[in-house]
Design goal:
Structural class: alpha/beta
Number of strands: 9
Number of helices: 6
Order of helices and strands: EHEHHEHEEEEEEHH
Strand content: 15-25%
Distance between the termini: 33 Å
Shape: elongated
Largest sheet: 5 strands, antiparallel
Length: 225
């Protein structure tokens, strides 16, 4: 069950229509989509403060029961920020889908484990050097049949894009800790350095990582403070 978060205020009718479309597309990807705009707007008027507050509370109650939060679009409204914070505080996996009209990029895992997102990364680690660090590859850069958390963890070996202040190229070179495969991507194609607790989850979900990741670089201790 996926909670669909998108803007409501502004062009009300267009935003409702967008939420309906996002739910349709998500449903076609095999998930059960629920958008608070479509449900609670039937009796909660967003222009009336008391009813808006009620709608937001009902939305959070619904989000608490969801398996994941999908944040749709580049614009993050005040209500959406509240939903993101709520999800992070309650351990609900959250994904930012910048192009919600492209369902082939939706975060649907190929196995029973939830895909990783930027919310699983150390805060602001994307502003640090990636060299010799484990990073989370954005799921969009994996074919649907290979979209698993196992295939999102990579070790950065080298490349001009390792540093955030790169000049001529943002290329970074990756090696998979288990398979030994190599890949070259842009710096923006990874979310950041995974949180230590997320690496523990990866080791538990995929035992082959436990031994393979021992010699690999752990996240910079400065990033974990």
């Amino acid at each position: 069950m996926v909670y669909i978060a998108s803007p409501l205020r502004g062009d009300y009718n267009a935003n409702i229509k967008n939420a309906v479309e996002y739910c349709r597309l998500a449903g076609e990807r095999g998930v059960l989509p629920l958008a608070p705009h479509i449900i609670f707007s039937q009796w909660c008027n967003d222009t009336i403060p008391e009813q808006r507050a009620q709608g937001l509370q009902l939305g959070l109650a619904l989000l608490e029961k969801a398996d994941a939060l999908w944040v749709m679009g580049e614009k993050i409204s005040e209500g959406m920020r509240g939903e993101i914070i709520f999800a992070m505080e309650h351990g609900i996996p959250a994904y930012h889908i910048t192009n919600p009209l492209e369902p082939e990029a939706y975060p649907v895992s190929a196995d029973e484990n939830q895909l990783l997102s930027k919310f699983d990364c150390v805060y602001e680690s994307s502003r640090r050097s990636y060299e010799k660090q484990l990073v989370v590859l954005r799921h969009e850069h994996l074919k649907p049949e290979f979209r698993t958390p196992r295939n999102q963890i990579w070790l950065v070996t080298h490349g001009p894009g390792c540093r955030p202040d790169y000049i001529h190229s943002d290329t970074i070179h990756l090696r998979h800790p288990v398979d030994g495969d190599y890949m070259a991507v842009g710096r923006g194609d990874v979310w950041g350095v995974p949180k230590p607790e997320m690496l523990d989850c990866i080791r538990q979900a995929y035992p082959e990582f436990d031994a393979a990741m021992q010699p690999a670089a752990e996240p910079d201790q400065e990033l974990c403070r």
